[in-house]
Amino acid sequence: MVFLTTKMMQRTALFVSFGSFVTSLTTAFLPLWKTMNSDLNEVENWFSGLWLTCLYTDEKGIQCKAYDSVLGLPMDLQISRVLVLISIGTGGFALLTAFIGLEGVEMCVRKPDVKRGLLIFSGVMTWVSGLTTLAPVSIVAYTTVVDFWDEGFPDVMPRWECGEAMFSGWFGGLGQVIGGSLFFVAVCMGDHDLKRLKVSVGPELRRGTKNYLRTEVL
User: Fold this and answer.
1) Is 51 exposed, middle or buried (0-12, 13-18, 19+ CB in 10 A)?
2) Contact 133, 24 (CB under 8 A)
3) What ranges in the chain are assigned the alpha helix state H?
4) Contact assessment for residue 30 and residue 54, using Cβ atoms and an 8 Å cutoff
5) Pick from 186, 174, 216, 213: which is nearest to 87 by CA?
6) Which of 13, 26, 144, 177 is the most buried (most CB within 10 A)?
7) Which of 72, 202, 176, 57 is nearest to 124 (CA)?
8) For residues 36 and 28, what is the distance between their CA atoms, to the nearest angstrom?
9) How many whole angstroms separate alpha carbon 174 and alpha carbon 70?
10) DSSP class of 145
11) Distance CA 50, CA 163 (A)
12) End-to-end alpha carbon distance in the chain
């Protein structure tokens, strides 16, 4: 395909990774990981995230409050916080190194091996960022489902349910895994183009060498 070049694949990988990283970053700070609606008091809606708990009422609107103690949080939220911070750090660093490794960027122009290594490193880091986004979302979703179906709670007692942020987190994490894979595809395409270039140039160099030797003999 004419449009599916190595340069285009690199930029597609960067675009997918950047969009997914922004989605994951937004998900990390949204207080919509879990929601709770009470049948006894329908005017109150509770929202919970990794950093805040919010209460929405028709009279006062939305009011949010940070958690009082980090050590007092459930274990799933503590683990999720650490994983989310790792995801943000690795995802941002992957985008930076990927930009330097792109074809057409005037950095490390005379060092193609360095650019190739940067793209591989970016793919690995993007994978790590995606997996560390999927992991906390899946952990919180699992604990929420287990608590929701816990028969030890009375039926009239309100229970937490999965919020919209979980779905955006799954989408962002999966997109980062796809973006990291596209970086590897771009590297393989570049290796294939380089190999094809060497094969096409090789016979011409050999013919030029033979003519040069013949001239020397004469």
Assistant:
1) middle
2) yes
3) 6-29, 75-101, 112-148, 164-217
4) no
5) 174
6) 13
7) 176
8) 19
9) 28
10) H
11) 12
12) 48
The residues pairing with 48 across neighbouring beta strands, listed in sequence order, are: 34, 53
Structure tokens at 189: 């395409």
Question: How many whole angstroms separate alpha carbon 196 and alpha carbon 151?
Answer: 65
* Tokens found for residue 118: 């940067």
The number of residues making up the chain comes to 218
Give the tens place of pLDDT for each residue, 70-82: 878 888 899 999 9
Cα–Cα distances in Å, from 169 out to 19, 24, 143?
A: 12, 5, 16
pTM for the structure as a whole: 0.82
Q: For 187-207, how does the pLDDT look when each residue is reduced to its tens digit (9 = 90+)?
A: 888 877 777 766 665 555 455
CA distance 214 to 207: 11
State how far Cα 144 lies from the chain centre.
23
Place of tokens 């028969």: 151
Alpha-carbon distance of 184 to 14, in angstroms, equals 12
